[in-house]
Amino acid sequence: MKRTDYISWDEYFMGVAMLAARRSKDPSTQVGACIVSQDNIIISTGYNGMPKGCSDDEFPWERSGEEGETKYPYVVHAELNAVLNANGRDLRGSKLYVALFPCNECAKAIIQCGIREIVYLSDKYKDTMGNLASKKMLDAAGVKYTRLDSNVKSITLDLTPEEEK
Predict the structure, then answer these.
(1) Which of 2, 29, 43, 156 is paired with 112 by a 20 to 30 Å CA distance?
(2) How confident is the model at residue 164 (pLDDT cuts 50, 70, 90)?
(3) What are the residue numbers of the active site?
(4) What are the angstrom distances between the C-alpha of 80 and each of 62, 66, 67?
């Protein structure tokens, strides 16, 4: 008899996105993304962070302050990092799993590369202009988006080798 307490594909890929988020150095918001083919194969992952070659020790992580002294002009969002990390692979028809609903800038990249569906965990900026613009563009382009529907609240990874258990 097979086990019955396994996680769904959506839970699995959101778990991968949340694990990717753990790589973010951002002290206030960690976001991860996972792009998956129509055959449920992971194409790419990403998390929010500084661009390659830009030291995350030298660029700011502040959320408020003078223009240029906050993280916002510098940080690459998880969704865009996942698109760029795909290294030119065909993303048409793929699905994006992401911790936070995509901003309007990421929505443009999602639409342009052909991602057809988004599964997100949180929509905490739902009333902002950027979020409303994102949804307007996604709707116009026919990109489906849904919040993850799951009874699973956490997935625990045990990195202890079998021989040490």
Answers:
(1) 29
(2) confident
(3) 79
(4) 21, 25, 22
